[in-house]
Write a structure and sequence with these properties.
This protein is an alpha/beta fold. Helices cover 41% and strands 16% of the residues. Bound molecules: NADP nicotinamide-adenine-dinucleotide phosphate.
Amino acid sequence: MKLLDGKLCAESLVADISRQVAVHVAAGLRKPHMTVILVGNHAPSESYVKSKITTCSLSGFDSSLVRFPETVYEQELLAKIEEINLDPSTDGVIVQLPLPAHIDQQKVINSISPDKDIDGFHPTNFGRMALGQKAFRPATAYGICKLLQFYQVPVVGKHCVVIGRSNIVGKPISIMLSNDFDIGNATVTLTHIETPRELLLDETRRADIVIVAVGIPGFVTPDMVKEGVTLIDVGINRLESGKIVGDVAFDAVAPKCAWITPVPGGVGRMTVAALMINTLIAYQNNFNLV
Ligand code: NAP
């Protein structure tokens, strides 16, 4: 079993980004700039935002954190996003999810300029990605692809099973790996809560690659996968003890895997690295560098 080390891969990508930024800055351009909007003080969101801001600094980017209280009116949030959309000094903007229940999450996502949508959640980017066109690719899915590429895990023609169909993880990764992309051309099955258990097991037991994003600790057990599988664990679950675990019963399943991602230190790190790549692309677009 070999680890798909997201920390190592992310550090390598970030180092490469910072070298590219240094070249642009030496040529007289300003640094790339990411703005993060955080509503409330949900502990996991605070920690994800902190990681994004720290990684901006390691990438050579400027960053801004805009905070709103949990009680913010939707209109106030939308007005701020409009202001950032029009601000030429910001290349990319993220609204940290989830948002409080009184705010329409999709409306907020739709209000972000597609040119600054580094999360890749706006319908324009998602649609362009699905059509195989140039787009900001959804960050977690893009991070998974970059990790597979970094470790040269074979993907083309492989049977890949995705468990979970959320708009931010399961759906985009299933589309991206089935598209004719630089990391793609797999044969993909997307499963969800209505997939009968027997069908799910039939699929996962013959899969070359299993990607799980359900948010249930220990969901993937050794009986569900074949020897030599590549297992990508997207889950981030906080146990009562405070320990962070994924969706895979890691210790039991790892011996059967050719490759497996750890949690933490796997996909989470890659999501942040992919956001940095998208921000650099947004910046290069702004300055017509690509
Ligand atoms: P989500 O929106 O809650 O979606 C979960 C998906 O799992 C849904 O599509 C659901 O199906 C499916 N599901 C639930 N139970 C299932 C079952 N028994 N069999 C098959 N499918 C089942 O979650 P998410 O936002 O994708 O996040 C999933 C996990 O990944 C969470 O732990 C989250 O914290 C983590 N995450 C990590 C990163 C990262 O950077 N590492 C990024 C995002 C999310 P239905 O659609 O039918 O309900």
